[in-house]
Amino acid sequence: MEQFSPQLDGVFVALADPTRRGVIRRLGHGPTSVGDLAREFPMTLPSFMKHVRTLESNGLIRTAKSGRVRTCVLNRERLALVDDWLAEQRRVWEERTDRLERLVTDPKENRQ
Amino acid sequence: MEQFSPQLDGVFVALADPTRRGVIRRLGHGPTSVGDLAREFPMTLPSFMKHVRTLESNGLIRTAKSGRVRTCVLNRERLALVDDWLAEQRRVWEERTDRLERLVTDPKENRQ
To answer: CA of B73 to nearest chain A CA: how many angstroms apart?
Structure first.
């Protein structure tokens, strides 16, 4: 996971805000125009656009312009980095549990 | 999940740094003194202590002092908030997939 460290920094920064998490949740229902999204969040359009740009620059969403409409799409692969990181932590905990079990069941493990 | 929003903000802020993620990983192996932890990270002790305090104030670790030694313990329950949030997003995606499937298999769904 260490090779994904800079990406993970950005993903966690992007997730550390309720508006940005709300956008991710909303885009889970399907691609949505920036205009439609913005109407659901009580702030000015420039403030909302800052959140959209943070999500986009950190790879959590993609946006594409068609005529005058910019549409946002969720990038689930980037969210999967968080899943992978959590799974890695669980592996560490499970290794520890296994080792504690061996300490209890096999006295030779106590030597070190 | 909305009731956990302020806690989630803090958890994601705390996770948005490789040193703090490293501390969480290290504590997955078991409780560790601040001194032993600090030796594993290439920075000054004051800088390291700032990371420890960020983790503690956001509930990801607990620390307790016994004599001159402060020991850090991982708080897995707080990390579980991230698991829960990811699970909630997956529910939204699965609902969408189910709806798309119904649209394909049941033409009445196309009315709206």
So the answer is: 12
Of the listed ranges A38-42, A45-49, B96-100, the one predicted with least confidence? B96-100
Nearest CA in chain B to A8: B16
Q: Helix and strand tally (H, E) in chain B? A: 5, 3
ipTM rounded to 2 decimals:
0.86
The CA distance from B41 to the nearest CA of chain A, in Å, is: 15
Closest CB from A28, A86, A93 relative to B93: A28
- C-alpha–C-alpha distance, residues B50 and B11, integer Å: 15
Which of B15, B89, B96 is closest, CB to CB, to A30? B96
Beta bridge partners of A5: none
Q: Which residue of A has its CA nearest to B9?
A: A16
Report residue A52 as tokens.
């959209």
| pLDDT bracket for residue B110 (50, 70, 90) | low
How far off is chain B from A84, nearest CA to CA, in Å?
Answer: 11
Give the tens place of pLDDT for each residue, A52-106. Answer: 999 999 999 999 999 999 999 999 999 999 999 999 999 998 888 888 888 888 7
Q: Classify residue B22 by burial, with Cβ atoms within 10 Å: 0-12, 13-18, 19+.
A: middle
Q: Residue B109's pLDDT band (boundaries 50, 70, 90)?
A: low
Spatial contact of A89 and A58, defined as CB atoms under 8 Å apart: no
Is A12:B16 a contact under the CB 8 Å cutoff? yes
- Rounded to two decimals, the pTM is 0.87
Q: Do B88 and A25 make contact, defined as CB atoms within 8 angstroms? A: yes
